[in-house]
Every structure is written in C-alpha cells, then in structure tokens.
Amino acid sequence: MKVYIETYGCTANKSDESIIKGLLLKGKHDIVDSIDNADAAIILTCTVIGSTEQRMLHRIRELQKHPLKLVVSGCMASVQPELVKSVASNATLLTPQHIHHIVDVLENRKIEFTIKDKTDLPRKFDSIIAPISISEGCIFSCSYCITSPARGKLRSFPIEGIVRDVCQAVKNGCREIQLTAQDTASYGLDINSDLAELLNRVCEIKDFFKIRVGMMNPWSLLNKLNNIIEAYDNLKIYKFLHLPVQSGSNYILEKMNRGYTREDFLKIVSAFRDRYPDITISTDVIVGFPGEDEKAFNETIDLIKSTKPDIVNITRFSARPFTRAKKMNGKVPTKVAKERSRKLTKLCKIISKKINQKYVGKRYDVLITEYDKKHNTFVGRNKNYKPIVLREKNLSIGDIVVVEITEAFPTHLLGKVI
Description:
By secondary structure, this protein is an alpha/beta fold. It contains 14 helices and 18 strands.
C-alpha cells in the first residue's frame, strides 16, 4: 500500500510520525510524497488553539475528498473524535497512545487496542534531526490546556529504551537529537528516575551528536534544578532552555493552575544564566487570559523586560473545549487581546535583536541542520542553538563549519564560513 503522511503541531507528533514511518516500512508499505499517488493518507493533528483546530478540520475535509483510506491521529483523534467524524465520517481514528496499531488499521485487521512502550517500536527519520519522545502525557492540569486530556497522564519511557532509540538514530546519521515531552522536567517521576539521569546516560553514547532538550514546566524543573543544570555541563547538550512562563502575574498563573510563581521563573532563569551566561532562553506567553487586566498584563511586560528572553512565543488566549478556562468569567475583548499581543511582540523583537547583536563578529562551530530551498540558504546551530543562516552554496547537511557572525536579526543570525 502507498501511504501519504502529513504532520502538524509539536515535536511529539513528529516523534510519532517517525514511528509510524518505521512501522509502515517494516510492514512492506511504501511512503509517498504526493497524495495523488497514495492508497491511504495519515494526518497527525494538533488542536492546541482554536485557529489550529479550524485549519485541521479544513485539511481533513480536503483529504476526505480523495478516494483513499483516511487515518486521523494526533490530539484531535484523542480528545475530539466526534468533531473529526462530523467532517470525515469514514475516517479511522488512531490516538497517540495507539499509533503502534497503524499497520493493523491500514490492513483492516481486527484490533484489541493496547498501550505499548514507544521505545520498542521501529523508527524512520528523514533528516539529521531526530525528535524522540521520552514520555507520554503530563502530571499537570493547566486550566487552559486541551493537550493534557488528549495525551493522558504521565508515562515515562525506560531509559534503556530511549538510549537505544538515540543510538539507532545516531547510527543512521542523525546529528541533532530532540528529546521531547509535554514537560521534559517531569520525566521519571513515575519510574523512580529523572531527566538529569536520562541526559547523563544519553550523553555517554559515543559518536558526534547534539541534544536539544524540550520544554520544561518551571514547577517540575525547580524541584530538580541543581541536577539538571549540572547535566547541562555536557558538551553534547545545546545550551538552550525552553521554559514557558505564560504570564508574569501570580494572580493569572494561579488561575491557569500552573503551580509556580513569577519568582520561581526568575530563580530558574538566574540559576541557568549564572552557570551558562550565553544560554538561549525561550519562553511562552498567553495574552488575554480570562481576568487579565492592565495590571496583570503590565506584570508580564515587566517580567519580559527584566529577564530578556531570546525567544518569546506569544499566543492570544483561545478557549478550548474540556478545559476550566473556557467557563471562566472575565473574558478579555478580542480587540484588547490583539493590542496586547502587538505591544508584547514589538517589545520582544527589540529585545531579541539587541541580544543577537552581541554575536556579531564572534566565531562558532556550527552544525548544518537544514536547507532552505525557498531562499537557497543553509541553516546551522551553534552551541546555544542560535539559528545561523549561511549563503554559501558548497555546504551539506551534517557539515560542521567555523562561522563568523556578520549580521543580527530578531529571529536569527547571518554568518559566513571562514
């Protein structure tokens, strides 16, 4: 059977995609690049905000028009099955917890659905970047989050299995390992282990590769702070920290049920920067959360001004089904939320560009990880995961080159090979 795959959303979906491809190839099925050549289509969906949900529904409708078997996976299959069926009644739904049944579904076998350790499954990666999930689910119940009910409670995968997956990825030519989870800092809470132990074990693997550690909730990171900071010492680990704060207001953080305060966030950022002064800090902010008044928003502005993150992912609040935030009073008018988003975006661009300007004139070893066909440029990463655009033509994915930074932009650096 010829199978076409589309993947949207987070790195966890991309990790699931690699497993689906591995299982298809093991089952002697072909993966094709065009839906016109396919007998079946698989879409891994995201539903984190309302606009994404609408985009997924539109795409599912489009895929449904083709005369083929349609499988819908990802978070929508788990938490919004009726909604998916309303636009694609003939689609087969396969939740993230059950992707190991993909070949059974395509071959119309009778299935008794089971939960399986994803580190026991084959994988196929299409680039030198390997997204690998270290756990499924989450210990938190943030009041706005639809992903938690979609992915379920925390299930950490065994360290030996993760190490085996990384070894296989590196053996197959992958050079950037993206360890991913809804909250990587919660890893191991259910199996008497922790993220620091996992990182130390993965770093023992021979051969050259780099590790990007995925998103960490400040609450769980704070409880393991010293051990995780120490684990970051290894040269294999990019000095990059994705630490979503979501709001600078303790009142809003409590309404979000995040479990930490702005002071906790400040403590973590300070501790990492004390140890790694040039670490790239990435954070997430939701503007327009129910009850966010001008005072609360200005507290977020003040937090961003004081911490100066390299990257801020800004999202306007989107009420999601099955969440407590959807029923909260104090809705922020759309016009106000948009204006707050614009104001924060403008501030963050100024901060990011100022930070990046400090790199101009400096030299770094850079791992080339991507080729941008549209602009005919290569993109590489330095030790703290800064994206560096290179215009040289005689490069290849996987090269390690010495680069001098020539220009800075809010989102990236421009460099030249020396």
